[in-house]
# Entry
Amino acid sequence: MNEKPFHKRRLKKGIDLSMKCPFCGYSESKVVDSRPAEEGATIRRRRECLSCQKRFTTYEIMERLPLIVVKKDGSRQTFDKQKLVNGMLRACEKRPVPLAELTDVADQIEQDLQNSLEREIKTTDIGEMIMTGLKSLDEVAYVRFASVYRQFRDINSFMDELNRLLTDD
# Structure
């Protein structure tokens, strides 16, 4: 059997991780076609086995490091992009903001967090990022989110935020 030289194999704890043909088990194949899939998040590859000449498809997915969210009480949980979208949906209730735009904001926030070197992110930092995204989409949704996020105690703190919004424009 034609094996790859030892130094060219990808090993993990003694296990050969080379791509094997699902039909005959042969460990060498050639890439016939390669294209992005799932909006560039993965790469789809059509391969042809060098032994039996049958074709099969593989997907290459970018590995993302887990993000940990540190809540105000100090507890930790894994990052969930859907929670961002849900929070923005509540702020945008009965507002003319398309779901696709909220998803784009959530995707951008997740990408920014992944690109940062920090693996633990405070909820306050995420909240500020959401507010920045909402501010560009819908000012009413921004104020709604800010009122819950910043926990305004009285009308004066609410007015301060509105004045800040007006002076930023």
In short: Residues 1-17 have pLDDT under 50 and may be disordered. The helical segments are 81-91, 99-115, 123-137, 139-149, 155-168.
